[in-house]
Amino acid sequence: MSPVIGVLAIQGDVREHAHCLTELGAQVRLVKTAEQLVGLAGLVIPGGESTTMSILAVKNQLIEPLRELRAQIPMYGSCAGLIMLANTITDGRSDQQTIGGLDICAKRNAFGRQVDSFEIDLKIPAIGEPDFHAIFIRAPLVESASDAVEVLAAIPGERSLTGSEQIVAVRQGNLMATSFHPEITSDLRIHKYFVEMVRSA
Ligand code: GLN
User: Fold this and answer.
1) Are 20 and 76 in contact (CB under 8 A)?
2) pLDDT tens digits along 18-38
3) pTM for this structure?
């Protein structure tokens, strides 16, 4: 049976994630309320705008149910979704709430104005060859990660603007996040990796 995977559908590029998951044979449920979280095998938090997403999640009384659920089912966050899954954030709104769970500090809009958006081919051993064409749109950076966090991808120092390595994809147990947006490419390997996490959870 194909697993039912939710896409948090209060803000952001919901449709693109739903499309990727459907292509991979998952059943997709768009989630706007806590009731719709019941029975999910996994959940995707899309890219969008994390401050708006946070405000709407609070308004829809989703923060606490999502915090409970992240200990129970796999979750994947892209871009703003990465910020939502971070335990701490820098450059957020003072009242910005996250679901948390990933022991990382995410810096919002970390890549500077002149490179608000950029694309780069990344080595991601967990999904194999070839390199993944990663698209970053006002993306967050994983500024720091605890030892419990597995780094899935980083921009190597020699290719980053700062000259030091920049972590852009992580996994910790059932939680995974990317700074970039695989949902707007036709390469389904990141979503496939997540669907496999869900199937084996
Ligand atoms: N800059 C956005 C934020 O802080 C994230 C951008 C994105 O999801 N493309 O929420």
Assistant:
1) no
2) 999 999 999 999 999 999 999
3) 0.97
